[in-house]
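Ligand: S-adenosylmethionine. Inputs:
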Amino acid sequence: MSDEATPGFDPRRFKALERAGFNRIAARYADGAHLRAELADALLAAAGLAPGQRVLDLASGPGLLALRAAALVQPEGEVLATDIAEGMLAEGARRHPHASGLHFAAADAEHLCLADGSVDRVLAGLALFMFPHPEQALAEIRRVLAPGGSVTLSVWAERDAVPLIACAQACIARLLPAPKVARPSVFRFGAPEVLEALLRQAGFDTVHIQACDFTCRFDSAEDYWQAFLDLAGGAAESLARLPEATQQALRAEVGAELESFRSGNGAGYTLPARALVATARRAP
Ligand SMILES: C[S@@+](CC[C@H](N)C(=O)[O-])C[C@H]1O[C@@H](n2cnc3c(N)ncnc32)[C@H](O)[C@@H]1O
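Predicted complex:
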């Protein structure tokens, strides 16, 4: 998404809000990782990591993919986990102080301070849609990849396939005034053909995309809402600044919205989600 396409959109303010939000939720994001375990498994399986590789985990959050990648590239391989939110990285470093071959460094995905051709694999879980200039982040990924190297990333699929996120967003849209400046949609690369075109335009020659479907179970509507807040950095930051009465109204709205997702036995809720996992290669 270019700044010109959305009048008034300020990428620096947007990034600052995301950074503040993810710093705010760092520990809870790490605690909620089990909800997306199947997606992490699918991404790592697609990445084809092997011992000795140099890996960059971009927008790594608390280093969940990076930690597992580090085990896969041992011995001698190295993983660098980078993120714009230093609190996320600090959380990962605090939880895994002795992981060998795992390093953390704060970095904006659109401006990587790595040498050309210096990594064999790039991972980027649930991140591309957050970058104001995804094409610039992909150019940076391609630049730092060695020829023949590849990036494996995940993005949310189209809105209708992701009630896990869409339910919360629908409640927010109903109760709160529309934002003065539209945020880029987290579903904007959810159509496989859109994602493939973006990757090819960035110069990647081989592109494979597969869907990953999974479900998340919540005992209560409150648990669902908290899990949403623990995943959505910028939204969590904006919502935390609202008056308590508005936050309460949102929680009540979520309870009604979730009715159609009651689990079969009537206890709790089951929310489906679909993500796309894409692997794209830099030509040898
Ligand atoms: C949904 S989390 C995904 C974390 C991790 N990759 C995973 O799969 O669990 C998105 C991450 O992107 C980071 N992020 C957002 N904008 C970024 C940017 N411009 N550069 C680097 N990281 C960014 C956030 O701080 C957050 O940690």
